[in-house]
Design a protein that fits this description.
The chain contains 4 helices and no strands. It has helices at residues 3-35, 42-69, 72-95, 101-129. The longest helix is centred in the N-terminal third of the chain and has 33 residues, at 3-35. The protein is elongated. It is a multi-pass membrane protein.
Length: 135
């Protein structure tokens, strides 16, 4: 199977899933802020969420553009941008002060998608890096 196609399908799936993830996280943060008025880290949580949204947006755009044009640098930068995005999702899953059960589920799915995207992105880079043969 073509790894470029697999990578593109995963990026397409993640672009829609991350939109759902971001909307759910924003909604849950608003609900937690209303129900737990003594939250000390609300601004930190919201700032990390906005940073993860921006990073993930640029990551998906770079990866799709690099994959479609078969250029290695945009895909490589997108793979490296997965690290801060993954750290932000793990923050919501592990280190957040009040994490809901639904957050564990959606963060686990997002971590799984990002891990599979890293693996397929690296496999997708291999054909891009070989030298062209001229006949």
């Amino acid at each position: 199977m073509n790894t470029s196609l697999t990578f593109e399908v995963l990026l397409y799936l993640n672009s829609y899933y991350f939109g759902l993830f971001a909307v759910c996280e924003i909604g849950m943060n608003v609900v937690k802020y209303m129900n737990f008025p003594d939250l000390k880290h609300f601004s930190t949580d919201f700032g990390i969420l906005m940073a993860v949204c921006v990073i993930e947006l640029f990551r998906v755009i770079l990866a799709r553009k690099g994959n479609l044009t078969e250029r290695k640098w945009p895909v490589l930068v997108a793979i490296f941008l997965t690290i801060p995005s993954l750290a932000g999702v793990l923050y919501f899953m592990i280190w957040q002060s009040h994490a809901l059960r639904f957050e564990y589920i959606i963060c686990g799915i997002q971590v799984g998608l990002q891990f599979v995207e890293i693996v397929t992105g690296i496999l997708c880079l291999l054909p891009f890096c070989k030298t062209p043969e001229y006949y």
